[in-house]
Amino acid sequence: MTEHxxxxxxxxxxxxxxxxxxxxxxxxxxxxxxxxxTPGRAEGVAAKGASVASTVSEALAANKIVIACLLDYDSxxxxxxxxxxxxxxxxxxxxxxxxxxxAREMSAWAGQxxxxxxxxxxxxxxxxxxxxxxxxxxxxxGSVLAHARSALDTFGGVKYLGVDPGLAPLHDIALLSGMYGxxxxxxxxxxxxxxxxxxxxxxxxxxxxxxxxxxxFLDRAAEQIDDGDYVTGVVSNIAMQAGAYPNLLKAAEExxxxxxxxxxxxxxxxxxxxxxxxxxxxxxxxxxxxx
Length: 291
Ligand code: NDP
Known about the structure:
oxidoreductase activity, 13 helices, 8-stranded mixed β-sheet, 2 domains, alpha/beta, binds NADPH dihydro-nicotinamide-adenine-dinucleotide phosphate, Rossmann fold, RedAm-like_C, 49% helix
């Protein structure tokens, strides 16, 4: 800690996200040592008060807390492997997007080098960092979280999920899966009406209201999954939906657009119905995803 009680932090990576993290730390008064592979990208944060390290070793030596925010886990290894001995005694917080398996591997690797490890999944885009709209999932070392807490609080909400380092990326990827599924439907809907010359701006309010009206699906699905009961109170059974779904694919074809974003669901629905589950809700398809 500095005389002002602000924890000093090293940040590796000054892309769009790393820069936003450094700016949030600086704005809150935390001393920051920053490093980036391409040195020119450090000029902006240097002007705002960050110390710029010219080598990774120098950046590791500067502070106990080291935050990595690079493109992917391979790039984190590429940066840290050659200077791995410098991680001893450090608290490595990896906010790079990755998978649960990659986080567990990196945690074990860091542990062998004498470093404590905390993984993080950033649920925000760079302009949201430092605002109440941002939050970050964390998992791994609770003592790293406690020591770095005042610094991490500057980024946004802190959601700690437990000691298994894979839990943060697991939740991160799960939210992104939901988001991309939503995006796929939205893209398809705009393409479909667009094929008939309907302006996207004109259609958007209809789509927004419809998605909001269907939002109740999520909580209902959660109850059905936890209770293992996909049948009670069903009003739109999967046999009916599997019968109507081909119209989504056929309409796309008629309009001369691809249905490839939609096609994977049809065989899963058909399989569930064929297995005798036609009276269930759509969410019963989740059983087919379990390998
Ligand atoms: P950018 O593409 O803006 O920056 C990538 C960073 O990684 C740069 O600092 C780049 O250095 C560095 N880098 C890439 N490859 C290597 C390498 N082999 N060795 C050393 N450094 C390397 O990405 P962001 O900053 O936006 O994203 C960083 C992380 O944050 C990613 O994992 C991303 O998924 C995650 N994230 C990003 C969000 C966003 O909206 N931007 C949202 C949530 C998470 P150089 O400048 O030298 O190229």
